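Here is one such protein, fold included:

. . .
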Amino acid sequence: MIGFCVLFHLNSVMALTVEDLYVAEVLVTDESEDQRKKGARAGLLQVLVRVSGTSGVEASSLIAGSLRNPSAYYYQYSYESTEKILNIEGVPIPARLLQIHFDPSAVARLLRQGVFPVWGSNRPSVLLWIAVSDDEGRRLLGESGNVSIVEHLKDQARLRGLPLLFPLLDLEDTSAISTAEVWGAFLQRVDSASVRYRPDSVLTGRLQVDSLGRWNADWSYRIEDQWRSFDDVAFSSKEILDRIIDKLANELADQYALDSSRGAVNMRVEAVENLSDYAELSRYLESLTPVVNSFVVRIQEDEVEFRLSIEGQREQLIETIELDEKMVLITSEGEQDIMHYRWLR
């Protein structure tokens, strides 16, 4: 499963790392080649949406063409048994979970060709303040709250690579904000109650089912210091929750993905012992998808220092190099913030 972990605290916000951005999980009926191909197509689209930060990739003719040959973009797959059931033409069939590991370099190259951003694993956290009204009454939603709603939120957030934070709803929270204040969209109170969590973004809203069985929602979400509000209606909780997560992910990607996809890093590589090593290393760095171009800053004995222009984040470059196993990272934050590697040849 895609997971999240605390990465660092920056400017009073809590940034989170989204793990397994390039791993897709798809339900299939069996382990046949036909099912694997269908699952791989769905998995590639899943990864392209998550990594680019936009569901608009599906409308690209370039992306549509790539989906016809998904095997060109993954390097490993496996199956797991599940307790889920797929309904195929009215026949219930036990589902298998197909897990596919896609190549970050190939995926990033495809997105760049389609002029889509490559959103790194360091992503803004989203704190949820949601008031729900149903047969059990009106209450705030915590991580251990309504199982169906919480699981829908988590599932869609995993698909979009969006790190969610749920309030603890402890004494400090209940003293800072009430269910009525969340229900009434008292946004200043929501802001004040959110301070302890230091989120990058906040989503608040109210959910209720009307007499026709429709789900109604009133949402407000904050990106940076700006609040935006809208309402929505759907015939299922999954539909209405999927839409808000998609909307928020798209807007956060618009805000962060492009800005974080350009940069430059200095890299010192040791154990470059001869001209052949140097030529091979140079070719390798130029072949890395995040690397736009490179030039040599300094050569001293068996060390070469490069200046690399990159697309994506520094961590993404580190992950790509780690996957290839041609260099080993010694330190990423040394003198003058230079990435220090050893060339393995």
